[in-house]
Design brief:
This protein has about 200 residues and is of the alpha/beta class. The protein has one domain: Vaccinia Virus protein VP39 (Rossmann fold), CATH 3.40.50.150. The protein has 8 helices and 7 strands. The protein has helices spanning about 5-15, 25-40, 60-65, 80-90, 100-105, 125-135, 160-165, 200; strands spanning about 45-50, 70-75, 95-100, 115-120, 135-145, 165-175, 175-185. It has a 7-stranded mixed beta sheet with strand order 3-2-1-4-5-7-6, sandwiched between helices. α6 links the parallel β4 and β5 (about 135-145). α2 (about 25-40) crosses α3 (about 60-65). The chain is globular.
């Protein structure tokens, strides 16, 4: 285990104590993050964005495991991003930490269609997650989302995904982690995602 990965366990413990992660062994959160690592194994990743990074799952581990990539941790809460910035300061190379709402940042030219991969764990319901993520993804990129065990395909309807330029790919399973992979087959409409608050309250499907 590298120094960075070893430190992730300590940071996850701090995140749990701060209320950014649920109760229970931090090792479980680390193992769940390893599921994302496996789901990334066959993908070329230069830029990766973690939506709603919160306590750093899975973003901190991905930054440690994929050190050649630019990893960006996004969260809308200043208290959480302050914690993530402190963790990032101990990493080499450090991930970038950005405070802001995904609905807004996905329209920022800095981030628009910039990512090879977007990951999301407990960010929101499928429709909101897909709508927010698609603005960050380049054509040919992938959205990786943590799913409940045996989650049905109808959570990600073909017609709804098509409106966002996404297509169901496969599910990668590792232990308790079930990672849905969706491919960005074309860039989304310039109006997507919609204004702040809309993706979570008025889904595209």
């Amino acid at each position: 285990m590298t120094a960075n990965v070893s430190a992730v366990l300590r940071w996850l413990g701090e995140a749990r104590d701060l209320g950014f992660l649920g109760p229970g062994p931090v090792e479980d959160h680390l193992l769940h993050s390893e599921g994302f690592v496996r789901a990334l194994a066959d993908l070329e990743v230069a830029t990766l964005i973690d939506l709603g990074s919160g306590g750093g799952v899975p973003g901190l581990l991905l930054a440690a495991r994929r050190s050649a990539a630019t990893v960006v941790l996004i969260d809308s809460h200043q208290r959480r991003t302050a914690f993530l910035e402190r963790c990032a300061g101990e990493m080499s190379p450090p991930p970038q930490v950005v405070t802001g709402r995904a609905e807004q940042l996905a329209h920022d030219p800095t981030w628009r269609h910039s990512a090879d991969v977007v990951v999301a764990r407990s960010f929101g319901p499928p429709a909101a997650t897909a709508e927010c993520a698609t603005g960050f993804l380049r054509r040919g990129g992938f959205l990786l989302v943590s799913e409940p065990p045996d989650a049905p395909d109808f959570r990600w309807p073909v017609d709804g995904l098509e409106r966002l330029g996404l297509r169901r790919h496969d599910v990668v399973t590792m232990g308790a982690a079930h990672i849905r992979r969706l491919e960005q087959v074309r860039t989304c409409d310039p109006t997507v995602p919609r204004r702040v608050g809309r993706p979570k309250t008025a889904p595209m499907w």
